[in-house]
Amino acid sequence: QVQLVESGGGLVQAGGSLRLSCAASGRAFSDYPMGWFRQAPGKEREFVAGLSWSGGSTYYADSVKGRFAISRDNAKNMVYLQMNSLEPEDTAVYYCAAKIRGQYGNWGQGTQVTVSS
Predict the structure, then answer these.
(1) How many Å apart are CA 72 and CA 85, to the nearest integer?
(2) 5 CB contacts (<8 Å, ≥6 apart)?
(3) pLDDT class for 72, splitting at 50, 70, 90?
């Protein structure tokens, strides 16, 4: 199993940047594709970005394409989400997840991102 802990959220003005981190524990971390999701108040959790076990393939929701970048460091058991040109609509709790047997899960506790206009 993989345990995940997110960090790096905070309050930022529109147009600003934040870098989220996800620390993973567990020997098999590098075997799994990973993803970032977010959930805004009153809305369902939605996919933001994902990447393959090697980091060689990345995927993004249309709403963040060109602004966000996902990466991983398997030597450090870390996944990152660089968020640039933030918009108030990006305000949400952000979660990282491991894709195990085709399903995202092993959710962390999340980190709050608030973008002020």
Answers:
(1) 21
(2) 22, 23, 108, 109
(3) very high
Fill in the amino acid letter for 34: M
24 neighbors 105 (Cβ within 8 angstroms): no
pLDDT band at 28 (very low <50, low <70, confident <90, very high): confident
Contact 74, 23 (CB under 8 A): no
Instruction: Tell me the C-alpha distance between 117 and 104, whole Å.
Output: 32
Closest CA to 6 of 115, 113, 114: 113
DSSP 104: E
